[in-house]
Amino acid sequence: MDSKLVFSGVQPTGNLHLGNYLGAVKRFVELQDTNAMCIYCLVDLHAITNWQDPKELRQNTIEVTAAFLACGLRQENSIIFNQSQVSTHTELAWIFNCVARIGWLNRMTQFKEKAGKNRENASLGLYCYPTLMAADILAYHATHVPVGEDQKQHLELTRDIAMKFNNDFKTPGFFPIPEPIIEGTATRIMSLRDGTKKMSKSEASEMSRINLTDDSDSIRKKIQKAKTDPFEIPSEKEELANRPEAENLLGIYATLADQSIEKTLEQFSGSDFKKLKDELSDILISELDPINKEIKKLLNEETYIVEILRKGSDKASDISQPILQKTREIVGFLK
Ligand code: TRP
Fold first, then answer.
1. Which of 70, 150, 243, 253 is most buried, by the most CB atoms less than 10 A from its CB?
2. What pLDDT shows up at residue 185?
3. Could you give phi then psi for residue 6, rounded to 5 degrees?
4. pLDDT tens sequence across 260-277
């Protein structure tokens, strides 16, 4: 069992935006096109750690699946499914709740951030979110996990859980220790309103992000209105140091043009932001317009999408059930 198995999850809590696309989904597609087995999960169980309107949760699950497909994920090459349809995740998560230590979870910065000041009122699910994430990954004996920088700590916890389980039950190597594949800084896309904050669906202003469902006109408008600074585009990378908005727009351009930031600076140095914004809009539209049209088309075929998730869930069960069964035996549960 030394072949590569990729697992990643995305919360179905709203439209995917450019940051999700360049930072995650585009890489999911690239990994799919290597010969690794890839499993991509819509983590609806994680989504409800904060209250979700049931109709919206359902619709978001369908929309994110449509976006996955429109971006090039294929059910023939990858397994695409929603977490709540595969019960191995929650069963394994319970066992992991008994392996992980409260002290470990108390160190999780995402919980502290998401729970905010009123920690007593956060859901218990939000607190043990990372043990469910460990179960997602280890239920498949996944070896590689593409995630954003912000999930690194959760992945370390997953590794700790795997090691402690293997150790406590004297089953060395039963759970492989998964490796993160962390997004590079080049793919870290920032808000269009504030270049120091990550582009996020939780930021109030729609103008802060480009959604995969945005049409060409709104892409152009959002880029035209994106925050800039009063200086011209420099020629050296070092000169971008305290210019987060300039760095972000140039970084997006470079990623889409598949060229270095140096080459991009060469192309735009000395010009004003208007030129950069015009060309950035063009390249964004040529990349996102086909995706946008495909999402719209797929959203008219809801039964097709529901069927993909059902089939994906069956395949995910087929892989994770025997691993759970073995785990149950190791723990000492009767059949
Ligand atoms: N916590 C991840 C996020 O918010 C989503 C996630 C859930 C995940 N389970 C996972 C990512 C397993 C990778 C592997 O981004």
1. 70
2. 59
3. -100, 135
4. 999 999 999 999 999 999
- As a whole number of angstroms, the distance between CA 300 and CA 304 comes to 9
Does the Cβ of 151 fall within 6 Å of ligand 1? yes
Phi-psi region of 21 (alpha: psi -120 to 50; beta: other; left: phi over 0): alpha
Alpha-carbon distance of 136 to 269, in angstroms, equals 46
Q: Tell me how far apart the 2 most distant CA atoms of the chain are, in Å.
A: 72
Cβ of 8 below 6 Å from ligand 1: yes
Grouping H, G, I as helix, E, B as strand and the rest as coil, residue 63 is helix
The whole-model pTM stands at 0.94
Helix (H) or strand (E) holding 45: helix 44-47
Q: For atom 13 of ligand 1, which residue has the closest CA?
A: 8
The amino acid present at 196, given as its one-letter code, is T
Residue 17 beta carbon below 6 angstroms from any ligand 1 atom: no
- Strands ordered across the beta sheet of 179-182: 78-82, 37-42, 5-10, 144-147, 179-182
State how far the Cα of 48 lies from the Cα of 129, in Å rounded to an integer: 10
Catalytic center residues: 114, 198, 201
Tell me the CA–centroid distance for residue 41 and ligand 1, in Å. 9
pLDDT tens digit sequence for 107-165: 999 999 999 999 999 999 999 999 999 999 999 999 999 998 889 999 999 999 999 99
- Give yes or no for residue 2 having a pLDDT over 90: no
User: 95, exposed or middle or buried, with CB in 10 Å at 0-12, 13-18, 19+?
Assistant: buried
Residue 105 C-alpha from the chain's centroid: 21
Beta strands in the chain (DSSP E): 5-10, 37-42, 78-82, 144-147, 179-182
pLDDT (mean) for 185-198: 87
